[in-house]
Amino acid sequence: MISEEMKHMYYQALIDKKSEYEGLFYVGVKTTGVFVDQHVLQPYPAAA
Predict the structure, then answer these.
(1) Which is nearest to 45 in space by CA: 33, 32, 29, 34?
(2) Taking the CB of residue 39, how many other CB atoms lie within 10 A of it?
(3) Burial track 17-26 (b if 16+ CB lie within 10 A, e otherwise)
(4) pLDDT of the chain, 48 residues: tens digit per residue
(5) Angle formed at CA 44 by CA 38 and CA 47, multiple of 5 degrees
(6) Alpha-carbon distance 19 to 4, whole Å?
(7) Given its phi and psi angles, is residue 34 left (phi above 0), alpha (psi -120 to 50 degrees) or beta?
(8) Which pLDDT value is given to residue 22?
(9) CB of 40 within 8 A of CB of 28?
(10) Where are the domains of the chain?
């Protein structure tokens, strides 16, 4: 489990498409069951 601070940091990296975070985390799309790299998503999901 990750802290709320880390969740916020990763979500902001997702929104900003920060390349230095590439490969550090992946995003799961609950409705489709697909996991993708953070640079693939469009539009952005709501923060959990």
Answers:
(1) 29
(2) 13
(3) eeeebeeeee
(4) 889 999 899 888 888 888 888 888 877 777 776 666 655 555 555 665
(5) 95
(6) 21
(7) beta
(8) 83
(9) no
(10) 4-37
Model pTM greater than 0.70? Answer: no
Distance, in Å, from the CA atom of 18 to the CA atom of 11, rounded to the nearest integer, reads 10
Residue 47 has what pLDDT? Answer: 62
Bridge partners of 35, per DSSP, are 28
Q: Which residue has the tokens 């469009």?
A: 42
Tokens of 33: 């069951």
> What is the pLDDT at residue 3?
94
DSSP sequence for 1-48: ---HHHHHHHHHHHHHT-GGGTTT-EEEETTTTEEEETTT-SSPPPP-
